[in-house]
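Bit of a strange request maybe. I'm writing a small parser for structure token strings and I need a real example to test against, not something I typed by hand. Could someone generate the tokens for this chain?
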Amino acid sequence: MQSKQFGRALVFALLTSSGLLVSNAQALSTTPKPTAVPGYPNWVNSSVYTGGQRVSYNGAAYEAKWWTQGDNPAQSGEWGAWKLISAATPTPAPTSTPLVCPSMTPPPTATGMTAKPIYDTYGCITGWEITAWITPPPTPTATATATPVVNTGTWNAATAYTAGIEIIYNGRRYRARWWVQGQVPNPADPWGPWEDLGPVGLPTPTPSPTSTATASPSPTPAARGIVNELQVSTWKNGAKGAYSLVHDDYCSMYYGTDPYIQIMNPELKKRGLVAGFGMITGSCSPQHWAAAKEMIANGHEIISHSRSHPNPYIADAELDVQLNGAAADIAANLDGYQASYFVWPGDAASTAATDFLKTIPQYIGGRASHLVANGNVDYTTMPAGVNAANFDNPYRIKWDLFTVDGKWSLYPMGSEILNLHIDAAISQGAWTTRTAHGVDTGYWETIPLDRYLAHLDYAKAKVDSGELWMDTPSNVIKYRYAREFCKPVLTPNGNWSSLLTFDTSAPQCQKYATPITLQMKVLQQGGMLGAIQNGKAVKVTNGPNNTAMITVDPSAGDVTFAYALP
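Reply from user aminoacidic:
Good idea to test on real output. This should exercise your parser:
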């Protein structure tokens, strides 16, 4: 057994105070509601608020960062629409009904771990803070007199054993080297807490007396990390498939009745979903640009759809104006926003045009197009389809086009082609993109409102079930290459701790670096896995069968893993 001290590998007060580890303590009495904040009106769910307006909610004051409606201030978070101005002050419990704190039992702690109670404002214990870890004591050195053997029968995971105690497990006899509880005896682990004494029935070996008081020291075993398997998830959050919804031709309709602004943006936001909006920049009014800023704030992607949407395709002589010009328009009107995905007008482009797109550094991808040769569009080539998980050409992304009758879709006419494209992503472990235009209001191949809302509900259900990752095209492209080129490296970091670093030297990693999801197998010890990156607690999803999942940015520094007791 290695005797060197861990030191304070992690201080889990950081995890508990960040809300990333859930306490097993729940209050048993009702806490009185805080009073409203004087001077601020109460927040109303149906009211519209603009940037700078302040409200009172549950005794706390909040200020709107931008236009908002229906966003609960208490659930806004760091990136939401509301900024906390002053926190709620709890009202003391009425003297007529004294507050009775629930009885709390400290969590079990291994040798060298201490549990410190965490109190709320009423003096009640709400959880426990694990403050330090030290490795179990070293194996006692052998002496001339053998330690008396204590036999306790069959091994039990719930029983704590001290040094010298012998047990039987799977037909073999073991002796505890030090204090141990819950760790399965393993004959293939010579450095663990259990010394293998051989099959049951063999005589128990006893130490032979020597001429000196101490035996020769055992070799120091290698440190064991807490995470012993790790792989990058094909899609973010461990989803089975990825999906992007793109609405072409934004700015092509009158602002006052524009469904992109009146329907798509708010309905997506209501469900916590994001999409792409392809702008025809030369047609945008000041109101369209203002609405585009709100779309960006809601997590949507503004996609370049050329400056004037030449029909049926962009001539080679106009490439610079239509591609670079549109990108410049977007940056100038959207506070420097960099468009990184391009959608070809008419879904048609020449070979020279697609090659030109690849030379513009800010564009990392584009939707596939019908080929143009000798001035004619070859519509017999079908760039529609499903993108494999490891697609190799981000400038030829395949799609499925919405038409009311489904005549150009991959799926049978008369079927719900919107939802079937999501099903294809999940069943094939792939990335599918949906090409759409307007919704409800009259326009080219408009999606009926009821079908559109039902599709969003279907996507939301698949996201909530963990089957689907729905994000914008550029984010999916970044993830696909960060997954391949930002290499995770896992090493032990002392006993029962692991260090995760990333090899970010590849140019592709530096270009596409984005948070990626890692799935892990953990040496379970009865607690939960905790993680810290650059001094900040990182959310870890602890799953069944000793599994865990974490999403981290490879460019944000090293990650340290260790156990935190529940």
